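[step 3/7] fold_predict: job queued, chain A
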Amino acid sequence: MNKKAFIFDLDGVIVDTAKYHYLAWQKLAQELGIEFTPEHNEELKGVSRVRSLDIILELGKIEASQEDKNKWLFQKNEDYLSYLVDIDQSEILPGVYPVLKYLKENGQAIALGSASKNARPILEKTGIISYFDAIVDGNDVSNAKPDPEVFLNAAKLLGVNPENSIVFEDSVAGIQAANTANMISVGIGEEEILCESQFIFKDFTFIDEHFIDALIKN
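[step 4/7] structure written:
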C-alpha cells in the first residue's frame, strides 16, 4: 500500500475559525481608525500574526513602535481566544470529518500544518486531535508561509518525502508554500483566488473517495 502524507491547514480548511480572526482584526483596526473589509482580510490568510498586523498598519498608513505593536498583537490574540471559548464539533467544516475518517481507515499519515499558535486547543475542543499523527503550528516554525517550512517539517515528522505529500489549503500563501515544497496542492475555496493549486474544490463535500484513492495510488 502506498503511504502518503496528508497535511491540512487549520483555519478555513478544517474549522471555521477564520471568521474569528477577521472579527478580532476588524475590532483592532476600528480602534486604530482603519477601515478593514473582508477583501482586505484575504491578504491575511495563511500569513503570520506579526505580518498581518503590519499589513493592517500599512492600510492605515500608521507608523508604530515595537512596544505598541506587541500590545496590539496581544490584544488581538486575547480577542480571538475569547471567541474560541465555546467552540465545539459544530465548527468543523462540512465534509472534513469523512475525509479524515477515510484517510485513517486506509492507513494514511495525517498532519496539521498551520500558522495558528492555538492549533492544539482548537483540535482538542472540536474532538478531532486523535486523527493527527503530527502537528506543526505557529509555535514550531520560524518562517511563515509562503515559506514551505511548516509543510516540510510536517512531512519529516510523518517520515514521508515531500513529493509523496498532499496539502489542503485555503490561502494563496499556503498553496505557494506547498508548490515550493514540491507537494501536491489542493485548494479549498474560490478558483479565481487559488488558481495556483493543482486541484481546487469549493469545500470538502466535493471531495470523494475516488479522488482520495487517486492521490494515494499516484
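[step 5/7] annotate
The chain has two domains: 5-15+89-217, 18-84.
The first helix runs from residue 18 to 31.
exit 0
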